[in-house]
Design a protein that fits this description.
single chain, 100 residues, alpha+beta, Alpha-Beta Plaits, four-stranded antiparallel beta sheet, 40% helix, globular
Length: 100
């Protein structure tokens, strides 16, 4: 199942402006790759960063939203950001469902 993870932080906690956040962000990919296996996360589909909006959008293929929640805590995303986890559907899949 696909989930959108919307992580928003303040300008003060932005990795551009905050040394602790910068270190966490620099280590994020490595930590995610290590930790995702123990939380039933199949893969990170995409990871987008909107610098001026102070928001990250991560598309994750996972079994449960609670597993993503645990991942966000363990790798440090929730230490600098408010996190919203939203179930997502691919547009093509919805169209197929509507046409059947």
């Amino acid at each position: 199942m696909l989930f959108g993870v919307f992580a928003t932080h303040s300008p003060e906690s932005c990795p551009i402006n905050n040394e602790v956040s910068r270190k966490t962000f620099a280590e994020l990919n490595e930590k995610i790759n290590i930790e995702m296996k123990k939380f039933n996360i199949n893969k990170i589909v995409e990871f987008y960063v909107s610098v001026l909006e102070h928001q990250w959008i991560i598309i994750i293929d996972a079994v449960h939203a609670h597993d993503i929640e645990k991942l966000c805590i363990d790798v440090g995303i929730s230490s600098m950001s408010t996190v919203k986890i939203v179930p997502m559907n691919r547009h093509e899949d919805l169209i197929t469902k509507l046409e059947s």
